[in-house]
Amino acid sequence: MAADTAHPHPAALSEMEIRVRALETLLIEKGYVDPAALDEIIETYEHRVGPHNGARVIARAWRDPAYREWLLRDASAAVGEEGGFGFVGRQGEHLVALENTPQVHNLVVCTLCSCYPWPVLGLPPVWYKSAPYRSRAVIDPRGVLADFGLHLPESVEIRVWDSTAELRYLVVPMRPPGTDGLSEAELARLVTRDAMIGTGLALSPEGIAR
Fold first, then answer.
1. Active site residues
2. How many CB atoms lie within 10 A of CB 3?
3. pTM score, two decimals?
4. Residue 200: which of 178, 173, 175 has the closest Cα?
5. pLDDT at 134 over 60
């Protein structure tokens, strides 16, 4: 019998997804959670808040030297309403931009918990909150970067920045070579979440589908 390709069956849910849906259903049934409010939160973090916001900021900084200087001087203002982005809100106050150079590579960690600039990077990845990353990033940053596949020359200084409840960081990765003719939107596609944390580099134009 031929498979029904017009109406494929949905992929089986993982054990974690099943638990999350069961908990969500229970909370809604007991009246603890408003379904409309829950949908709004999901919509916000899936489509409005995420690394794509930070990528737009970095792309603007790569193309506009005046904006780059402003971002490095006052990141909170540059990514907010004044800068035309409006990336403000909870976990986004007191943002500091750190610029990578051929001599210096910046790495962000939060040793006490998982403070993270949500408005520009979305929710923190699981590994960012893990105890091994939080401890080793300070003790052996070069080894941590190697674990992520990033091997920097010994001549490059690695600076580790510890986020707090009052201060969060955004790494401005170096612009890849061969990108002079790219638009801001095309440049944004080269900026990864890991590059804005410091555990990775921006992609080369060949690294993405044009």
1. 110, 113-115
2. 7
3. 0.77
4. 173
5. yes
